[in-house]
Amino acid sequence: MRKHFGLALVSLAVLAGVPVTATPAPAPTASAPRQSAPAYDIVLRGGTIYDGSGKPGVKGDIAIRGERIVYVGPKAPGKAKTVIDASGMAIAPGFINMLSWGIESLIADGRGLSELKQGVTLQVFGEGDSMGPLSPAMKADMVRRQSDLRYSVEWTTLGEYLDWLTKHGVSQNVASYVGAATVRTNVLGEGDVDPDAAQLARMRALVAAEMRQGALGIGSSLIYAPASYAETPELIALVDEAARCDGAYISHMRSEGDRLLEAIDELIEIARATGARAEIYHFKQAGRDNWHKIDAAIARVEAARREGLKITADMYPYDIAGTGLDAAMPTWVQSGGLEAWIEQLRKPEIRARVIAEMKAPGVGWENMYRAAGGAEGMIAAGFKNEKLKPLSGKTIAEIAAMRGTSPEDTIIDLVIEDGSRVGTLYRLMNEKNVARATSLPWMSFGSDAGAQAPEGAFLKSRPHPRAYGTFARVLGKYSRDEGRLSLAEAVRRMSALPAANLALRERGSLKVGYYADVVVFDPKTVADRATVENP
After folding, report:
1. At what angle do helices 232-243 and 197-212 cross, to 10 degrees?
2. Cα 367 to Cα 189: distance, rounded to the nearest angstrom
3. DSSP readout, 376-438?
4. Hey, how many other C-beta atoms are within 10 angstroms of the C-beta on 295?
5. 307-335: pLDDT as tens digits
6. Which of 215, 226, 154 has the alpha carbon at shortest distance from 206?
7. Of the four listed, 158, 213, 350, 383, which is most buried by Cβ atoms within 10 Å?
8. For residue range 243-269, what is the model confidence (pLDDT) as tens digits?
9. How many CB atoms lie within 10 A of CB 176?
10. Would you state the pLDDT for residue 2?
11. Contact 169, 209 (CB under 8 A)
12. Which helix (H) or strand (E) holds 73?
């Protein structure tokens, strides 16, 4: 894990607009006895400490020297250079975002304000794709496919990217899985092909090299091309290589809807075959026809855990998903990459076949168009083409009506015209299921969004509200307001639990000797403000 800060990272999240005052320690008066140098750099005074264990909060002080916590208790003895009055506030370990897409947005703005303002002190990347290892062709594609955020690619490996990013300047800690699709593309390209023995050996060698540079393990995203072309034995081989370095497996599974249970079985099979820890990305049941599967999904995970397998999950606490229009089309048409996909869609016979498959249940692919209930359940959110940007916020049904074309033709036309997968929100999940999932003891949280700010280039598209609301929503809506989990448990599941799942040392808890990743917030008023209409 890389970090970029001078002293301690103390994330003072003023989530409710309540100021937290920080004042220098008072200077001794002329008549006071001579005092020794300050014992601490920072003392957080008089807050309620939730240490990450899940135990009830206890009022007290946290003292920090350099990057480390040096005191946790009733009243820190000695002086501090800076004293922060945390009376009435909660003090917690910094939150861990298990699924961040800040890989590009942090290049544009290293502050990561949408995360930092929520108390996030670690962003974890690598859902299937990662910023390395890159071939020369992959670098060229990365530059050519950029949208509102523009940057040069000055690295080749994932480890080099993480080092480059921290030197470039970021507010938070960053870490990443190596993307299974990135490794596959490096060796095989973006086509629907299987590796031979020599190619698989090269893929394993790339994984081993990234693990030595600090990757967390293997991340996959199996509903998307070209990741979807990987079969289970290929994934087992890559995860096995990562597991040799105590790396984990984390997956946007092959299905979150029609074949949800079979996809969970595949993840468990990979964990069992490799001995690796395994985590399910954004645990959900997508599509009305699949909402009832939550009981069976939970049962499968808990049975595997009783078996001794280390299976966990993370989620974003919303009933609406965010991805691209590629999730509305069969993956066979996307073989060869973005440009080849668009070229295929220009052919009338291919277009007709794609439209027919979009209208039917997905066979061998995840049909989110049907899962969302059609065009009414899909909202355009992010375009590359300046001429199309005014359509952001409209449903696909509304855009189709404006154009006088069918919803399926509209989806295909938008991809061609924009030259991208087109960021899209899909209404897929059931709120009761979302609320229930937040209460699961093995569930942590991730925004599945970029780290951004409400200014500049970021205003050219409409993010999912999870970008600005995920962690505040757990603390406010699901913990305080609905009582799905206690405040102490909410803190544990955003700090110590993910830290343990990531096998991080000396992070995720408020303990003497641990790194001072700390957040202060008002538990009485913390709340998410972001909506679909005003994200």
Report:
1. 30
2. 24
3. GGEEEEE-SSTTTGGGTTSBHHHHHHHHTS-HHHHHHHHHHHHTS--EEEEE---HHHHHHHH
4. 11
5. 999 999 999 999 999 999 999 999 999 99
6. 215
7. 158
8. 999 999 999 999 999 999 999 999 999
9. 28
10. 64
11. no
12. strand 68-73
Looking at this protein, which amino acid is placed at residue 270? I
Contact 222, 280 (CB under 8 A): no
Fill in the amino acid letter for 443.
M
Query: What string of H, E and C letters represents the secondary structure of 263-324?
Result: HHHHHHHHHHHHCCCEEECCCCCCCHHHHHHHHHHHHHHHHHHHHCCCEEEEECCCCEEEEE
The Cα 472–Cα 469 span in angstroms is 5
Residue 208: the pLDDT is: 98
Summarised one tens digit per residue, pLDDT across range 14-71 is 443 444 444 444 433 333 334 567 899 999 999 999 999 999 999 999 999 999 999 9
Token pair in block for residue 195: 């590796």
Mean pLDDT (whole number) for 337-344: 98
Residue 441: how many other CB atoms lie within 10 Å: 13
The residues, ordered by sequence, that sit 6+ positions from 346 with a Cβ below 8 Å of its Cβ are 416
The pTM assigned to this predicted structure is 0.94
The one-letter amino acid at 451: A
Rounded Cα–Cα distance for residues 7 and 81 (Å): 12
Q: What is the DSSP letter of 207?
A: H
Using an 8 Å Cβ cutoff, are 177 and 123 in contact? no
In contact, 530 and 447? CB cutoff 8 Å: no
Q: Is the peptide bond before 33 cis (omega within 30 degrees of 0)?
A: no
Instruction: Give the whole-angstrom CA distance, residue 366 versus residue 257.
Output: 7
Note the residue count of the chain. 535
d(CA 429, CA 424): 15
Helix 197-212 to helix 180-188 angle (10° resolution) is 130
pLDDT digits (tens, 9 = 90+) for 151-198: 999 999 999 999 999 999 999 999 999 999 999 999 999 999 999 999
- The residue among 161, 160, 170, 83 whose CA lies nearest residue 122 is 170
* 243: nearest Cα among 211, 210, 201: 211
